[in-house]
Specification:
Blueprint (H helix, E strand, L loop, with lengths): L3 E3 L6 H10 L7 H20 L4 E8 L2 E8 L4 E6 L3 H10 L4 E11 L5 E9 L7 E5 L2 E2 L3 H10 L7 E10 H10 L4 E8 L1 E2 L5 E2 L5 H6 L6
Parallel strand pairs: 1-10, 4-5, 4-7, 7-9, 8-9, 9-10
Antiparallel strand pairs: 2-3, 5-6, 11-12
Helix pairs in contact: 1-2, 2-3
Amino acid sequence: MKKLTDLSENNSILTSWVNQLRSVEIQNDRLRFRRNLERIGEIGAFEISKTLKFHEVNIQTPLGKKSSFEFTKQPVVITILRAGVPLFQGVLNYFDYADSGFVGAYRKHGDGNDFQIRQEYVTCPDIHARPLIVTDPMLATGASLAEAMYEILKIGKPSEIHILCAIAARQGIQKIQSEFPDVHIWCGTIDENLDERGYIVPGLGDAGDLAFGSKLQK
């Protein structure tokens, strides 16, 4: 199985949703912005589900039995707070019986364009030998996601790891792939560049602020 999937390689309705996320004429509608992230999460969940392990089951209907297939193990879905919440909800919309976890990680900006990664909160169920899906809408430098992954993997060893992003930058993809070579990255689309502050260009801006409103800086 390949380790990087760009869901925009073939044009689909997802392309339109990403366009709306980017558009300055549309993205200030917070409800619409969150819903588009959620729908990308749903498409990502559907595509990821095709790669998971299934086992045979017998379903009792009112008129007989039907042989079919079900997930061997339900996944654990973890999101990076706060921007990842709508994307995370989209994944949960499709994985009805998944367990959930949360990581509080963010950039702490200093003078100029320098920033540090602060991580103050990690909670999740047992992930050992289970599929793990981590949602992070903007994979830019990859620094905050990498820090989150190291903390998550202290808790247990999943059977497989999937990272789902709405937009990813090449630099972030390369960082995650170099530090976690077995991870499968799923992207709504891929941008080539970062600016001097480490934001994706052209990207869409700050996904957390667009989804939930601007935050006070401390």
